[in-house]
Structures are given as structure tokens and as C-alpha cells.
Design goal:
Blueprint: H1 3-11, H2 14-18, E1 21-26, E2 42-47, E3 52-56, H3 62-80, H4 104-120, H5 125-132, H6 136-145, H7 147-162
Antiparallel strand pairs: 1-2, 2-3
Helix pairs in contact: 1-3, 3-4, 5-6, 6-7
Length: 168
């Protein structure tokens, strides 16, 4: 998938992204009392082109859970799908300042671009910081600011260490 195709997916409206997804409504678990057993408020999405599946049952409202599931799907696409046409000599990328955690329209494409750079440097913080023109501690601080990004980064780095320094 090219960077432009991925960007289009990450910034598409929910209805456009839904065309490539299987949408399953199911009864949720957790808070909600008796209502939880009467309505199908949980939402599960499977993105057919990437095989990524997410679910949301945080809210009692199916509408709200659907919105949350689409946001989770975009995050997972950004963190897992690397651009085939990415090159280090490509367009400039501003690592800092990091987008606001509440600005998903900017945060998700930014995370995808950052993870392209991390993957290109085998998830080495020092090399990636050099690529981004920031210090290693600044890059680590930015990643830790977003727990989901830090968790995905740590998992990828650990996979590389387990493979003897060879990326997947």
C-alpha cells in the first residue's frame, strides 16, 4: 500500500471506510446493567484489505461505539501498515510539536508517518531521532505521551530483539 492510499484510508469519513469493512453488532459486556443483555451495543470492525479487526464496547450507545471502533481501526492501520513507497529522502516530517491527543484528524496520519520512520530505522530510537531532527529523549517523550504509540513501538522493538536484530 502506498503512503497516499494509506493516508486516504486514515482521513476518510467513516461511511467511506465502512465500504471496506465487515461490521458486526453484538451484545456487549461490562457496565450497563440489565440494558447490556438486551441491546447489541458492541461493535466489531474487520478491515478486509488489511485484515485488521477492532472492537468497541466502552459505551452503552451503539452509535458511540461505532465511532470509537472506527477511530481504533484508523490507529491500528497507522501503527501496523507501512507505506511501500516510503523513502528516507522523501518529504519533510515534523516530529515536534506532536499533535494534541484529542486531534485525531492530525494525530493518526502523524503517527503513521512516525512509524514509517521508526520501521525504516529498525525501531531504534537514536537512529529515528536523527532522521526526525530531534533528540532521543524528545522522541521518547513524544512516544510516551501516547500510550498506544509507546506500546506498539515497544512491541515492535521487542520482536526485532527476539529475532536477533532482524526486522519481521
Amino acid at each position: 500500500m502506498t503512503a497516499a492510499e494509506r493516508h486516504a484510508m486514515l482521513t476518510a469519513e467513516d461511511d467511506v471506510l465502512l465500504r471496506d469493512c465487515d461490521l458486526i453488532m453484538q451484545k456487549g459486556t461490562g457496565n450497563g446493567g440489565q440494558k447490556i443483555n438486551k441491546t447489541s451495543s458492541a461493535v466489531r470492525l474487520r478491515h478486509r484489505p488489511t485484515g485488521i479487526a477492532v472492537s468497541a464496547n466502552e459505551e452503552r450507545s451503539q452509535f458511540r461505539n461505532r465511532h470509537i471502533a472506527f477511530r481504533k481501526l484508523r490507529y491500528e492501520i497507522a501503527l501496523q501498515i507501512r507505506a511501500d513507497d516510503f523513502s528516507l529522502s522523501g518529504e519533510a516530517f515534523e516530529c515536534l510539536p506532536a499533535p494534541s491527543p484529542s486531534n485525531h484528524a492530525r494525530l493518526i496520519p502523524w503517527a503513521a508517518a512516525l512509524f514509517d520512520r521508526l520501521a525504516a530505522s529498525d525501531f531504534d530510537l537514536v537512529k529515528t531521532a536523527e532522521l526526525c531532527g530531534v533528540s532521543t529523549s524528545q522522541l521518547e517523550h513524544v512516544l510516551r505521551k501516547f500510550p498506544q504509540l509507546w506500546r506498539s513501538f515497544s512491541e515492535a522493538r521487542n520482536r526485532i530483539k527476539q529475532n536477533g536484530g532482524v526486522p519481521d
